[in-house]
Amino acid sequence: MGYDIERFVGYVNEGLLCSICRDVLEDPLQAPCEHAFCTACIHGWLVHHSNCPEDRQMIDVALLRPLYRYMKNDLNRLQLHCKNRDNGCEMVCSLESIDRHERECEYSQIPCSNAGCTVQIERRNLDSHLAVCEYRSRECPNGCGYTILSAEDTQHNCVAELRTELELLRSEMICRVEEAKHEMESRLDSQRRHMVQKESILQNEIEELKSQMSRMMSDVRSLMAAERQHRQELEQAELEKREL
Fold it and tell me: What are the TM regions of this chain, as residue ranges (predicted)?
């Protein structure tokens, strides 16, 4: 549906009216035959029809296009009253900026922000309503620190509330201690496995070093024996040389 033409100040060009609802175009689309419609209107029309409601030419939703720029500019420049005019708002602004104004309008009906309250009230009166709203929350006047609703005043018991809060804190603390305990045990197990693995690796390296040392000592003994043999052979050769 479009904007009610009665809200507009001055003359509105016929070409800026929806061909279906006959109100001023809202979120407009244009058919190939150049007739313009509100998006919601033409989509609803094409559910049951396949032609233009003005000249009966065949159209398809895929052929719909945005409004020509010059028409869009003319549309945006139209001046109209705020929808809250009947509530006292006297604002008149362009169609291009009307949505922004109405979102912030002091005369708009908005819901109370207190949980459980169903009252709809003008934005300008919200603060005064919140001051007396039966669903407003406040801190307990007896000093327990608990936030209560006015409607719960007669049922509020500081001792019971504090006892409940204490039990919740105790349960939360126990859970956190258990979580910390499990985490520490998990870390210790991980470190223990890492140390055992590291010890095994070091033990293997030590055994390998011992094996290498044993081979080296065997090689040294073999070299020393060969040296003695070589020295004996040299001494024998020297004796034979002297005898000759």
Answer: none
